[in-house]
Amino acid sequence: MPKDARSPKKLRSNRAALRHKVTYALRHPERVGPYVRRAGRDAWLRIKHPDHVGYYRAVMASDARRNPEAAVGSQTHDRWLALGQMQFEYLIEHGLRPEHHMLDIGYGNLRGGRHFIDHLDAGHYYGIDISPDILIAAKKTLTEHGLQAKLPHLTITGDLTLDFLPDDHFDVVHAHSVFSHSPLNVIEECLSHVGRVLTDTGFFDFTFDRTEGTEHQVLREDFYYRTDTLLTLARGHGLHARFMADWEKRPHGQSKIRVSRSPLPS
Ligand SMILES: C[S@@+](CC[C@H](N)C(=O)[O-])C[C@H]1O[C@@H](n2cnc3c(N)ncnc32)[C@H](O)[C@@H]1O
């Protein structure tokens, strides 16, 4: 993460604004070519897949075939390792125990998932993702880390209604770097259904790209929300919701919100 990713200036910048793009291009001319190529590819994928999930699945297919670690947002293997460890340590500090049942939404190539699978009792990890290509990469990670005996469930989903999952089942639901790639209707779909699959004492943690300025998106790949927008959305679906200030101390560019059916001790 760049050191200033959460500086007041960065939190207010609008990456979709022409002025921002021009300034950025002048400061980083070497990134203009790759950006233009990505914008061209994405424009074509959006024509082929007008719905967001279909479009983002195609983005993941294209990225994961080249490099699954980069496809989940880690430019180096060391960063991939660090990001997985960071997710795991945070949930351990927040009480994740082996007997818990966990739902990992958007498991990617198991950057964080491999730690959760290792920690939890066999069969207690359930992962869903929209991308068949990332499922193949996830199975490779699972094999490389010798986690077969833990029998995790890894499956593909087309939406976030969670309708194939049981009531009152998951102690922890987790979505890391998923809503940072999601328009509001996808987030709302998840928030309107997640309460049903959570236990009464369970919680759902999700990260998001925070802005304190204008909400915006870049190439429909990266979405920036104000904290209040997401807290209000969750509360509108009868959930308790709070901003996780302790996550802000971690070297990660995104912020975190926790929602639950019942009020949780802070
Ligand atoms: C940046 S990666 C993060 C992977 C993993 N959570 C981690 O942090 O290592 C985002 C993942 O979310 C998946 N994804 C994006 N939108 C999704 C959605 N609406 N439902 C489920 N998965 C989604 C993508 O396919 C991708 O594997």
From TrEMBL:
One of its GO terms (molecular function) is methyltransferase activity. This is Class I SAM-dependent methyltransferase. The keyword Lipid metabolism applies. Signal peptide: none annotated. The keyword Transferase applies. CDD domains: AdoMet_MTases. Keywords: Lipid metabolism, Methyltransferase, S-adenosyl-L-methionine, Transferase. Belongs to the CFA/CMAS family. It comes from the Bacteria.
